[in-house]
Design goal:
Layout (H helix, E strand, L loop, with lengths): L3 H7 L15 E5 L4 H11 L4 E5 L3 H10 L6 E3 L10 H11 L5 E4 L14 H29 L2 E6 L12 H20 L5 E8 L23 H4 L4 H13 L4 E4 L2 H12 L1 H10 L4
Parallel strand pairs: 1-2, 1-4, 2-3, 4-5, 5-6, 6-7
Helix pairs in contact: 2-8, 5-6, 9-10
């Protein structure tokens, strides 16, 4: 009989158990203007990495750059994940900044707070366009570089919602579930090219993800969730994530006991989890 602690530990197991020195490694982070992306950038900079920071808000990206340990080792590359046709050119620019790339951190995305019956199909399409198609399009743009050099790491910031479903997040959950299917498959395809894929599933993290989430008509939700407000600090999350990235873990859940328990229940007791989710307040 499995217990929760055994299963939680299994989530941290990967085929590799390496550690990595990030000194002068080049890392491209999307969604780097705030929240998790910002915290990852600051913490990677403390380990002397070369950074390429992308998001739509160039002003905020420059503010993150100024916060990094060595701003001279940080390049700003504005990027809209819904504009896939720009990715080939953006990738050429990224590869030219520090003569190549060692890691792509797919962190950019958008969430949702609305019931499926009320949500316009255009909202579902937008969330999939950014979270799923934007992420895999950028990955495909950089993949030939990693294959050619026979080395590289792809990091995907998914969500616990990528493992389970919850009310008010139908499109968001769909986009994150899709990422797991794509990147689990990709991991097997690129194994012989010495390319690793790490999927990280955050639980509640204290960011603006709820405020920036889309409502039923596509406008910003513009409200905080209690879960996010009381969630893990981005800096704490980033430190935990970087440790797992350095060890090239395949998949990691980083969150509180309730979020980890939800993933465990989904795997072994899905009916119990379904009953719980129907009753909890997910706002």
């Amino acid at each position: 009989m499995y217990n929760f602690n055994d299963y939680s530990n299994l989530l941290y197991l990967g085929l590799e158990n390496k550690t990595m020195n990030y000194n002068n490694k080049t890392i491209w982070i999307t969604g780097a203007s705030s929240g998790i992306g910002k915290a990852l950038a600051i913490n990677f900079s403390k380990q002397d990495a070369n950074l390429i920071l992308s998001a739509r808000n160039e002003l905020s990206l420059n503010e993150v750059k100024a916060t990094c340990k060595d701003p001279e080792k940080v390049k700003i590359l504005p990027l809209d994940l819904s504009e896939h046709t720009s990715f080939d050119e953006k990738t050429k620019l990224a590869l030219g900044y520090f003569n190549g790339l060692d890691m792509l951190v797919n962190n950019g995305g958008i969430s949702q707070r609305s019931y499926a019956i009320e949500t316009k199909l255009s909202v579902d399409k937008k969330i999939l366009e950014v979270n799923y198609f934007g992420t895999i399009a950028l990955t495909k743009a950089i993949l030939p570089h990693f294959v050619a050099k026979k080395n590289g790491q792809i990091v995907v910031i998914s969500s616990v919602i990528g493992k389970i479903g919850a009310p008010l997040r139908t499109a968001y959950a769909a986009s994150k579930h899709a990422l797991h299917g794509f990147f689990d498959s990709l991991r097997a395809e690129v194994y012989n090219d010495n390319i690793t894929v790490t999927i990280i599933c955050p639980g509640y993290v204290n960011t603006n993800v709820s405020k920036n989430a889309l409502s039923a008509d596509g406008t910003k939700h513009n409200k905080d969730d209690k879960g996010n407000t009381n969630g893990m600090l981005p800096d704490v999350f980033a430190k935990k994530a970087i440790k797992s990235i350095a060890k090239q873990k395949q998949e990691v859940v980083i969150g509180g006991a309730k979020e980890k328990m939800a993933v465990y229940l989904k795997r072994f007791f899905p009916s119990i989890l379904a009953n719980i989710i129907r009753k909890i307040d997910v706002t």
